[in-house]
Amino acid sequence: MIFRRVSNWPDFYWRTPFGELERLKRQLDLLNEGVLGGPLKGPSAGVFPLMNVTEDKDNYYVRAELPGIKSEDLDISVTGESLSISGERKIFEEKGDVKYHRREREAGKFSRILNLPAQINTAKVEAKCVDGRLFIVMLKAETAKQKQVIVKSS
Amino acid sequence: MAQTESKALQTKEKMALSTAAEQTKPGIVFTPAVDIFETEKDLTLLADMPGVKSENLTIGLNKNVLTMSGDVEAPEGENETEVIKEYDTGKYFREFTLSNEIDQTKIDAMLKDGVLRLTLPKVEAATPRKIEVKTK
Fold it and tell me: Cα dist. A69→A91, A111, B6, B122, B134 in Å?
C-alpha cells in the first residue's frame, strides 16, 4: 500500500493529545520573537529587580527601581559580560502597639544576574542610588564598541 | 525593632491605574504599594514611589479624601537606545478615604529613598480614653 503524507495534514500533530497545542505555542513563540525582537528580551516578571538596559556609543546604562533599599544593603559586581545584583530589602516592624490596615510592601532577599550583550570594561563601572532608583553606567570594552568604517571613493 | 522575615523577594508587576481622575498629560499612571497602620495616637502610611522627588509630590486632604500624586521624570537620556525593557515608568496616584478623626494641621510627610512616610495624627478627642470601671 502506498502511503503519502500530505503536508499540513493534521494527523501528524494529533499523535499526542497536546500536539496541536504545542504546534500553536511554537508558532506564537516564533511570532513573538519576530515582533518583540530576538533573544535579548528578558523575562518580563518573576525576577527581582526588574531592569531596563539602554546603550549609547560608549556605555551601557542599567536602571532598576529599588525603593527603600539603602546602598549598603546592595551588592553589585561585574565580570566581563555579566552584572550581578543582590541585596536585601528590609522593612522594620513598627515599635509599639500597631494595627495594620494594609500591607502591600514586601521585604526579602534578592539576587539577579544579567547577561550583557557585549564585553564591558570592568574597571569603569559606576553605580548610584537616588530616590529609590538604581542607576549603573558601564563603559563598553574597546572590542565591543562600534567602529565606523569609512568607505573610500576612488 | 525586630526585622521582618527574610524570604526571597518576588517581583510584582507595577499596578497600572485605569480609573484615575482624567489626566491631562499623557502617560501611564501607577498605584504605589502602601502599608497603612494605626496606633493609638496616629495613622501612618508608607508608599513606594521610586523616582519621585519631593518637589514633584503632592499630597492633599480634602473632605477626608487623602490624595497622593507623584510625577516621575523619564530616567532615560536622549541618545540612548533600548536594549532590554522590563518595566515602565510613569506617574503615581492613589486616593484613600479617611475617617474624620485626623488632625489636618499636624500631618507630616517625609520622602526618603523613594519611600513616602506620611504621619496623620488623630485629633485629641478621638484618642480612646481608658474608662475605669469601679467595683464596690
Answer: 9, 13, 14, 30, 51
Strand partners, A99: B38
**Which residue among B33, B50, B80 sits closest to A54, beta carbon to beta carbon?**
B80
H or E element that contains A25? helix A19-36
Total number of domains constituting chain B? 1
A80: its cell numbers: 566581563
Cell of A112: 539577579
Contact B35 A42 (CB under 8 A): no
Is the ipTM reported for this complex over the cut 0.95? Answer: no
Tell me the nearest-neighbour CA distance from B91 into chain A, angstroms: 14
Q: Tell me whether residue B10 is in a domain.
A: no
Q: Chain B 62-81, CB below 8 Å of chain A: which residues?
A: 75-77, 79-81
Q: Is the minimum CB–CB distance between A56 and chain B shorter than 8 Å? A: yes
Structural domain for B96, as ranges: 50-74+87-122
Give the distance from residue A29's alpha carbon to the nearest chain B alpha carbon, in angstroms. 18
Average pLDDT of every residue of chain B: 82
Q: Could you tell me if residue B27 is inside a domain?
A: no
Domains of chain A, each with CATH number or no CATH: 9-41 (no CATH), 43-90+108-149 (2.60.40.790)
pLDDT given for residue B29 in this prediction: 87
Report field, pTM of the whole predicted structure over 0.80: no
CATH assignment of the domain containing B102: 2.60.40.790
Low-confidence residues of chain B: pLDDT under 50: 1-5
pLDDT 10s digits, A77-130: 998 888 999 999 888 878 778 888 888 898 888 999 998 888 898 888 999 998
Task: Please tell me the distance from the alpha carbon of residue A142 to that of residue A118, in angstroms, as a whole number.
Answer: 10
Contact: A60, B83; criterion CB under 8 Å: yes
